[in-house]
User: What shape does this take?
Amino acid sequence: MFPDIIEQDDKETIAQLQSQVADLTTKINEITDTLKEHKHSGSDGSEVIDQSLEIRSPNSIKLGYGEVGSYIVNPGVSLDSATAGGEAFQTSISVGKDIGDLYSTGNAQLSLIHYAKDTTTYYSYLTGARPPYYVSPESITITNGGNTLTSTKFSWTTNELAGAYVNIIHATTGAIETRTIASNTSTIITISGTWTSATASYYYIIWRPMYLGWSTTPWKRLYVDESNNGGIRFGVGSTGNGQNGLLYMDSTGDLYWRDKASTATKLNGAGDLIIFPYETKGNLSAGFTLTPDHSFMILSAVAARTSSTTNAIDSIAGATIGQMIVLQGSSDTYTITIKDGANTQLAGDCTLGNNDTLTLIWNGGDWVEVSRSNN
Assistant: This one.
């Protein structure tokens, strides 16, 4: 008798659970149907949300032609600065008609990525990508020194990817290399330059960058950090890989341009390339030495003055060969004389009166006269 009682109780319990599950399923379907038709009206009566709202699995919400998703990658893994393969949180906003395509999409996507465990390089950044957008569904082989990538999982139109970027991600270390796509066939991508990564298996992502602002809707101001860890970078890829340049300001306020070969050139002040052109050098003393920190300098004094006989114009440590300066006098009474042979190579001493000019070029050892004008 006892086993029969247990069997009967089990049947009743199962029946109750089945009924409850059926009720929950009905309610979930009702909520889903309600959300799909849910709309909001604006203050003027127009519909603010006029498309369907759908909760999607596992971590995203679809609203009309847009979707918001939130994900975690490598949970619990501390950031490895060499591979950037640590725990990362990502929230993405996607817009377009191809919502939900796993490997290719016609959507534009904005992503906020945060490496919470990174206390060295503080990786947290905002990225934007638009079509063509492809993610490799399988690993492919990249050859060091080569310039192609072959994938048979997509059939691309010839040169539809030209000008886009391709990221290759090492299948085990997570190291990334980014290159510009020069051309493509249906299955083969040719990059500009050659792969510097080791021959190995990689995954790839193909994308184009997005605009930040627009000609008719600009942003008000861009704030960036100082030093060569901040600034504005042009191009893609890692520093020193021949792919990008950097414009930055150092802690003293001087502006620098670091080119693709990682050579930094000062753009203002007592440095290499002078782009801030005008300064008045006033109240010059006898035996003065000019610091050529501007490309055009108006000279004045309270009496006629003559420069140093050994160093009329500083050479400036690290000055760029070909740098030019123009000196102009401002008084026919209090003239300014630049001595020949004083770190200068002139056609004789040059005396500058009002509006007279002397043009010089740096040849790596002296300031050489290009021309003078008695005005």
DSSP finds one helix and 28 strands in the chain. The mean pLDDT is 83. The longest strand covers residues 124-135. Residues 46 and 328 are 67 Å apart (CA to CA).
